Amino acid sequence: MSDPAGTEPEGGIPAFLFDGRSAERHAVRLHLAGATLVLEYADGAEERVALSALAREAAGPWGERLVRPAHAGWRLDLPEGLPAALATQLPPPPRYGRWIDRIGLLRAVLACTAVSVGLVVAALTTPQWLGPLVPLAVERRIGAALVGDLSAATCHTPAGDAALARLIQAVDLPGQPPVEAQVIKFDMVNAAALPGNRIVLFSGLFDELRSPDAVAGVVAHELGHVRKRHVMQALLREAGLSVVLAGTSGAVPGQIAQITGLRYSRGAEDEADAFARERLAVAAVSPLPTAAFFTKVAKTEPRGAWMAMLASHPASAARAAAYAAAARTGSVYRPALTTAEWQALSRMCDEDKRVRPLLDF
């Protein structure tokens, strides 16, 4: 056993040497000679190693361990521990890692925390100014690559196409690049803004809303995402195009997941709603049907402060209240579409006999 006083045990320090050249384990005795460690083999042969060439590793089942960083595989295990006389001449073993040991654990934790916070802040804020700088042509190519060809599931009739174009024109900003709007044959109460100035409306939306004014509010909201370049910002914020699929059900076909999978920030959703209310007012379309729609949606939403904090969209009840508050007493509103136009738009997928439901492919 090692001497408490720090002197070398009689007969040397027992150890096992692995020389890095073979798998053989050599039983040796160690002797300290100034700044040199003498390794005495069982046959009497000796090997000298400068203490400056040695380093300590963390202790383990093998006891203490010394290594020679310049010699791969070389290690010296001391099952009875490291005598104080030898330990005082060697650097302490690493506890966490080389650079962490150099600056200290607390400073390393603070540094890593600062870097992590900086990366998170950059990931959340950079897209807000970088997204609008992406050329629209590039965004269109991204949208085509993500979603693919939806033409087989896109409903078309001359009257329905004209009604959809009139609805877009009524609530969109004038003088902007054109928006490509499509009605997709799929029984989902949803609409989505896609990269490249594209909007899709699912046919289930018309069955649920049953009002051209409510559809106008939904369309205006998606136009807000398009005109504010929220789509590109969301792609950048999610740090890669593949995560457009994240957060959607694995049972939902991939193309539907790609269309509906984008997640916007709460601020972007509020901004798109404000855009929609403003454009409805300019078009003299009542916001009350949109408020009624959100009131109905609110009845199916989980409630509570925590759910509101975790939700990607503002609470539907709050959105309903905001749209209701936008209605002005004494204002003269007109329907977003005539009765004939609404019928043409809402029945377009039923009348187009060539269209195929999205689930078919």
Automatic annotation (TrEMBL):
Cofactor annotation remark: Binds 1 zinc ion per subunit.
Transmembrane region(s): 105-124
Listed name of the protein: M48 family metallopeptidase
Cofactor(s) the record lists: Zn(2+)
InterPro entries the record matches: DUF7092 (IPR055518), Mito/Outer_Membr_Metalloprot (IPR051156), Peptidase_M48 (IPR001915)
Keyword Zinc: yes
Family that this chain belongs to: Belongs to the peptidase M48 family.
GO molecular function: metal ion binding; metalloendopeptidase activity
Domain DUF7092: 13-87
Taxonomic path: Bacteria, Pseudomonadati, Pseudomonadota, Alphaproteobacteria, Sphingomonadales
Species of the source: Novosphingobium piscinae
